[in-house]
Design goal:
The structure holds two protein chains of two kinds.
Chain A: E1 4-7, E2 10-14, E3 19-25, E4 32-38, E5 45-51, E6 56-59, E7 62-67, E8 72-77, E9 86-94, E10 97-100, E11 104-109
Parallel strand pairs in A: 2-11
Antiparallel strand pairs in A: 1-3, 3-8, 4-5, 4-9, 6-7, 7-8, 9-10, 9-11
Chain B: E1 4-7, E2 10-13, E3 19-25, E4 32-38, E5 44-51, E6 57-58, E7 67-73, E8 76-81, E9 90-97, E10 104-106, E11 110-114
The chains are: A mainly beta, B mainly beta.
């Protein structure tokens, strides 16, 4: 099955700085890589995703890059704001299911 | 679009009783729904996958007789925790996918506390 590793587990950044979260996956057949943001007591919210035929995707302050050869993908948040503080999960598809990373707790310091 | 509603958001029940959690896709037909369990500060653990009109597929180690899943229509799946015990207390989350896509949209989650 798919194994997704996510680093770092916690990340503290100054407001306005950038945050980067990295994930690796094991199954070369995976083609879909979403990122979710989860606030305390709520369900995960899809914030951006990328498919294997694309190397990079951007949506305002967030971007995702994918390196299929190396089997890793990253989430980049620029100009961080306090409302970006949350737990972020990466995931990779595997046989119509998603395998999730362990999560990264991002804290944006004002 | 792609809104998934989960109800209730919180429930407290007594040991030995059963609790039903509903997951609805409000603006799309969900061919597949997934149920997860999440422990504090942990990732999402897939419990089962359900397809409309067929039996759910449970992940290894998940008791199918304890966690009953019904996916009677393309917009509704339910998870019933039977004979609940304190160790079943957790955050349960559903997600739904449309068509053959693995793009998943999550409900708000249900905090179950068994006392």
């Amino acid at each position: 099955g798919e194994n997704v590793e996510q680093h770092p587990s916690t990340l503290s950044v100054q407001e306005g700085d950038s945050a980067v979260i990295k994930c690796t996956y094991s199954d070369s057949a995976s083609n879909y890589f979403p990122w979710y943001k989860q606030e305390l007591g709520k369900g995960p919210q899809l914030i951006i995703d990328i498919r294997s035929n694309v190397g990079e995707k951007k949506d305002q302050r967030i971007a995702v890059t994918l390196n299929k050869t190396a089997k890793h993908f990253s989430l980049h948040i620029t100009e961080t704001q306090p409302e970006d503080s949350a737990v972020y999960f990466c995931a990779a598809d595997n046989d119509y299911k998603l395998s999730f990373g362990a999560g990264t707790t991002v804290t944006v310091r004002a | 679009g792609a809104v998934v509603s989960q109800h209730p958001s919180r429930v407290i029940c007594k040991s030995g009783t059963s609790v039903k959690i509903e997951c609805r896709s409000l603006d799309f037909q969900a061919t597949t729904m997934f149920w997860y369990r999440q422990f504090p500060k942990k990732s999402l653990m897939l419990m089962a996958t359900s397809n409309e009109g067929s039996k759910a597929t449970y992940e290894q180690g998940v008791e199918k007789d304890k966690f009953l899943i019904n996916h009677a229509s393309l917009t509704l799946s339910t998870l019933t925790v039977t004979s609940a015990h304190p160790e079943d207390s957790s955050f349960y989350i559903c997600s739904a996918s449309r068509g053959s896509s693995t793009e998943a949209f999550f409900g708000q989650g249900t905090r179950l506390t068994v006392v």
